[in-house]
Structures are given as C-alpha cells and as structure tokens.
UniProtKB/TrEMBL annotation:
InterPro entries registered for this protein in UniProt: C-type_lectin-like, C-type_lectin-like/link_sf, C-type_lectin/snaclec_domain, C-type_lectin_CS, CTDL_fold
Gene3D superfamilies in UniProt: Mannose-Binding Protein A, subunit A
Keywords: Disulfide bond, Signal
Residues in the signal sequence: 1-19
Protein name: C-type lectin domain-containing protein
One family name in Pfam for this protein: Lectin_C
Domain (C-type lectin) ranges: 88-208
SUPFAM superfamilies in UniProt: C-type lectin-like
Amino acid sequence: MRWCVVGFIISLFRDVVELREGSGCEEALISRSSSPGLQVQAGTEEEDPLCLVEKHPAAVPDADLKKEKATSDLVKRSDRCGHGWSQFNNRCFRYISGAQTWPRAERNCRSMGATLASVHDVHEYHEIQRLVLTATHSYQQAWIGGCDIHEDGHWMWSDGSAFGYADWCPGEPNNGRGRKQDCLQMNFSSAKCWDDLQCQYKLPYVCVKKI
C-alpha cells in the first residue's frame, strides 16, 4: 500500500477506523469534518459547498500549447492502453471529469488498474495539460498523484515512483492559511503550475497506468 494512501487514512481516521494489515485503505472512507463548515461524506456524490477551486477553475488559454496540441503526435490513443486512454512515454493517461476528493480519486484510478498520475519531466507535464485541454477546452485544475501526507514537506507520488520533477507555483507548497494541504493539484493560477491543497476538496483528476 502506497504511503500517500496509507498516510492519508491514518492521519484522518486514526481514532475512528482500525486498519487491518493487508486491507484496502481506500475502502475505509467515512464521514469526516475536515475544517469548520467543510463536510465530506464518503460514498456520496454530493458537491462540497466550499469547493471554491472546483467552482472557479483556472481556464486561461495558452496559445503556444494550443498550437502544439493541433500538431503534436506525442499523445495518442492506443489499442495497448484501451478505450479512453492516451499513450505517452510507455504509459497510459486518462482524464476523469467527475470531481472527487483526492483519496476517492486515487481509489477510482486503482479500480481501473491505475493510480493518480505521477509526472517526471516538463514534457510529460505539458502532455498531461494537453490531455486536459482537449477534454475541457480549458486548463482545468485537477488532482494528480503527489502528496506529503506521510511526512510534511516530503512529497511522494502515489504510484511509488521517485518525485524528481516539480512545477510548483511561486511560494508553493505552503500549507496556505495554516491549513494542512497534503495533496497536489495541477493547472493552478494563470501560470498553470502546481499547488498544495486540502485533500477533501473535489476536483477532476488524471489517472496513469503502465502499458
């Protein structure tokens, strides 16, 4: 079990859920109040009333990336990936538009034999951005697989790969306003860079799986 998922469940539900060795932590999602006025109920599709990020996504077009999108053959659909997936660098990516909390997004990716996406260089990040742009016609903010749940400031990918590349926005990650922000969203602000955010917010997300 990856530390991002295990650490999230332990930190949120330490006093409520008994985790058994070998059990699926993702299955232990239960109701929790993460901050005053913010209620997240597992197993429902109810919209978080304070999910301001979801309601006001960054949607600033980038002429250069749009031009690249029209001519790029790097991201392509592949029979090796399956319907709805796009291949790049021997991995398969999929954008899911239905907004979920980070742990539920990770669980949904795992149900498809994938995880939330890890990103390993700027070219890969641009291809993932292009995937989102193609699906939404905007640079929609979305969850990817980074988290520092196990140790604050020590960022990891949920698929266990090395966290060797980052595209943080200026001043990020910062646990903004003193809140515990342990999960990574992409396409933040007009710069379309990375930001740390509370894991209970609901966002679309990008999954990845190996070919």
